[in-house]
């Protein structure tokens, strides 16, 4: 990122399963620590596990980006309880990062207290975005 454009802000995604694109949380945490030590500000794609979300924040993540459902699935937020716990315990922004398929899914994320919702496949594959 620095060489390409001088940016210190990066998004980290370490995937473990090529089918579901779920994050590998152990490797994500390890990679985050390396990037932070190198001076990067890191937004982290992660599972909806509140324990790992807190570990990522404590390791220096500037934003936590838990999945709502598998990337590209459009299934919406599958675990509202965990997402709310992440939001309530976070001192950094929380952005839902995957699985959001509709505007109503995005509204649910905002109602749960998320700071933002990443919309990708829902817009990219829309007939009239």
Automatic annotation (TrEMBL):
It comes from marine sediment metagenome. Coiled coil: none annotated. The keyword Protein biosynthesis does not apply. GO terms for molecular function: thiazole synthase activity. Residues 1-129 form the Thiazole synthase ThiG domain. Its EC number is 2.8.1.10. PANTHER family: THIAZOLE SYNTHASE. Pfam families: ThiG. It is an enzyme of class 2 (transferase). It catalyses: [ThiS sulfur-carrier protein]-C-terminal-Gly-aminoethanethioate + 2-iminoacetate + 1-deoxy-D-xylulose 5-phosphate = [ThiS sulfur-carrier protein]-C-terminal Gly-Gly + 2-[(2R,5Z)-2-carboxy-4-methylthiazol-5(2H)-ylidene]ethyl phosphate + 2 H2O + H(+). Catalyzes the rearrangement of 1-deoxy-D-xylulose 5-phosphate (DXP) to produce the thiazole phosphate moiety of thiamine. Sulfur is provided by the thiocarboxylate moiety of the carrier protein ThiS. In vitro, sulfur can be provided by H(2)S. This is thiazole synthase. Keywords: Schiff base, Thiamine biosynthesis, Transferase. The lineage of its organism: unclassified sequences, metagenomes, ecological metagenomes. Pathway: Cofactor biosynthesis; thiamine diphosphate biosynthesis.
């Amino acid at each position: 990122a620095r060489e390409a454009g001088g940016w210190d802000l990066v998004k980290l995604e370490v995937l473990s399963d090529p089918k579901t694109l779920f994050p590998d949380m152990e490797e994500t945490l390890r990679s985050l620590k390396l990037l932070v030590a190198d001076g990067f500000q890191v937004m982290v794609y992660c599972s909806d596990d509140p324990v790992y979300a807190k570990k990522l924040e404590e390791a220096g993540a500037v934003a936590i980006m838990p999945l709502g459902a598998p990337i590209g699935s459009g299934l919406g937020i599958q675990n509202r309880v965990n997402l709310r716990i992440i939001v309530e315990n976070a001192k950094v922004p929380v952005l839902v990062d995957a699985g959001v398929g509709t505007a109503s899914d995005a509204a649910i994320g905002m109602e749960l207290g998320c700071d933002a919702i990443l919309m990708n496949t829902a817009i990219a594959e829309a007939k009239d975005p």
